[in-house]
Amino acid sequence: MRDGMRRKGLIATAALLSGVLTLSACGGGGDDEPSGDQGGGSEQSEADRAAEEADTSTAVISITPENAADGVGINDDVRVTVEDGTLDEVVMTAAEGAEVAGTISGDGTSWAPDAQLDRGTRYELAVRASDGEGRAAHESRSFTTVSPDSSFTGYFTPEDGETVGVGMPVSLNFDKPIEDRAAIEAAVEINSSSGQEIVGHWFSDTRLDFRPEDYWQANTEVDVSLNFDGLDAGGGIVGWQNRSFDFTVGRSQISTVDAESHQMEVVRDGETLRTIPISAGSAENPTYNGIMVISEKLKETRMNGATVGFTDDDGEGEYDIPDVPHAMRLSTSGTFIHGNYWAADSVFGGSNTSHGCVGLADVQGADDPEQDGAWFFDQSLRGDIVTVINSPDREIQPDNGLNGWNMSWADWQAGSAL
Q1: Which residue numbers delimit the L,D-TPase catalytic domain (predicted)?
Q2: What confidence tens digit (pLDDT) does each residue in 294-303 have?
Q3: 96 pLDDT tier (thresholds 50, 70, 90)
Q4: How confident is the model at residue 334 (pLDDT cuts 50, 70, 90)?
Q5: pLDDT confidence of 45, banded at 50, 70, 90?
Q6: CA 3, CA 200: separation in Å to the nearest integer?
Q7: Domain boundary among 106, 121, 146
Q8: Are residues 290 and 363 located together in one domain of the fold?
Q9: Does residue 327 belong to any structural domain of this protein?
Q10: How much is the pLDDT for 54?
Q11: 288 part of a folded domain
């Protein structure tokens, strides 16, 4: 009896397998008879069958960030994707109704904004996708980006694409105090064609400079990446910038001002270009000694003593010159090397008469290229070195301008948070 039951079971199994094979062959679409199950059968997914029964789309839309999210980053935090379908339309608008440009990928499965979003802004997203049967799926989100109050910005020197002198550091100034200095310093990536080691130094909780041990090698290419987006700086603030920039170090120009001999020697790539008579700071207001970096160039500028603490008994500036020609800043506190048209010619090369600046012979209007002030201005780049020696004043502080070269390499490294 058991053998009979076994034989019946085998026959039934064979019949079942035969039925499956027959059904599979018919499912392919024969010439004689149409299939009774067009492309379905056991291969149809549960989702597809459920969608057919409910006549809904199988496309599944995903949106980042979550709905009603706050503090969203403005670079790469917004993204739309779809599975089992393609994106038909993505509309993103800011609170005031302005539409945000974005691009759907070539395969139709993802979308992202074309540009950086604005901080502290509420956005809305509306998405439509469709599955292979053309059935539509919809999804929407609203969110708010990180606010200026809870995020920090890093302002950088030099400018993107600028050609600079060999003394130019990479200097970052933050608009809010940084508590986690190590995290922020580690997020700055600097690469140079010269291969010089580059180290950061914190002058304060809002200023971070980078430089090599010695001046940049001439003709070096430098690439900088600031990877701050979403980075927690402590104190409840996060970064929002992902920014890259590059600059080129040009020829090497190092000028030495001898306050005692009233002369400046200008050396380009190891060769003396010119020795220029100068007038440095007077005995009462001597020029700082030390290495200074040209941080700003102004063909003409106003100089008023009141802005740097030189006032008379009435509180007025001891001087107020509206059109100082060919001025180049050497310190934050107001030291410049500039043209001088108001002093007698005998002053240059003969005596020190200024309030701390280095003066060169020039004319009013800054329109005579033959003047020493004009020549030096035209020959100089931001980042060039001007070193002052033999002045009765103290050495300039490293954080007074871009003048971190007045610090030993050991002391510079000690100021790194890494």
Answers
A1: 253-389
A2: 999 999 999 8
A3: confident
A4: very high
A5: low
A6: 87
A7: 146
A8: yes
A9: yes
A10: 63
A11: yes
Angle formed at CA 30 by CA 27 and CA 35, multiple of 5 degrees: 40
Q: Residue 292 and residue 300: Cα distance in Å, rounded?
A: 21
Instruction: Residue 369: give its domain's CATH number.
Output: 2.40.440.10
Tell me what pLDDT residue 3 has: 42
Q: What residues contact residue 289 under an 8 Å CB cut-off, 6+ apart?
A: 259, 388, 389, 390, 391, 393, 394, 395, 396
Residue at 244: amino acid letter: S
213 shares its domain with 234: yes
Which helix (H) or strand (E) segment holds residue 273: the answer is strand 271-277
CA dihedral defined by 14, 19, 21, 24, rounded to 10 degrees? -160
Residues 187-241 have pLDDT tens digits of 999 999 999 999 999 999 999 999 999 999 999 999 999 999 999 999 999 999 9
> Hey, is 234 helix, strand or coil?
strand
289 secondary structure, DSSP code: B
Classify 319 in phi/psi space as left (phi over 0), alpha (psi -120 to 50) or beta. beta
Q: Kindly report the backbone phi and psi dihedral angles of residue 304, in degrees, each rounded to the nearest multiple of 5, phi listed first.
A: -120, 125
* Number of domains into which the chain is organized: 3
**Helix (H, G, I), strand (E, B), or coil: what is residue 313?**
coil
417 to each of 166, 176, 180, 213, 223, how far by Cα in Å? 25, 17, 9, 17, 21
Question: In whole numbers, what is the pLDDT of the chain averaged over residues?
Answer: 89
Cα–Cα distance measured from residue 68 to residue 207, given in angstroms and rounded to the nearest whole number: 35
Burial class (CB in 10 A: 0-12, 13-18, 19+), 26: middle
Sheet of 198-204, strand order: 154-157, 170-174, 207-212, 198-204
Catalytic annotation, residues: 338, 357
263 forms beta bridges with: 258, 277
Going by the DSSP 8-state scheme, the letter that residue 150 receives in this structure is: G
Reference 328, options 282, 269, 409, 266; nearest CA is: 266
- Same-domain check for residues 304 and 237: no
Instruction: Give residue 393's region: left, alpha or beta (phi > 0; psi -120 to 50).
Output: beta
- State the Cα–Cα distance between residues 212 and 199, nearest whole angstrom: 6
Residue 186 pLDDT? 98
In a domain, 395, yes or no: no
Question: Considering the domain boundaries, does residue 126 fall inside one?
Answer: yes
**CATH assignment of the domain containing 166:** 2.60.40.3710
pLDDT at site 47: 60
Q: How far is CA 98 from CA 101, 141, 383, in A?
A: 10, 16, 42
The two counts, helices (H) then strands (E), for the chain are 5, 28
Distance CA 330, CA 310 (A): 18
Confidence of residue 306 (pLDDT cuts 50, 70, 90): confident
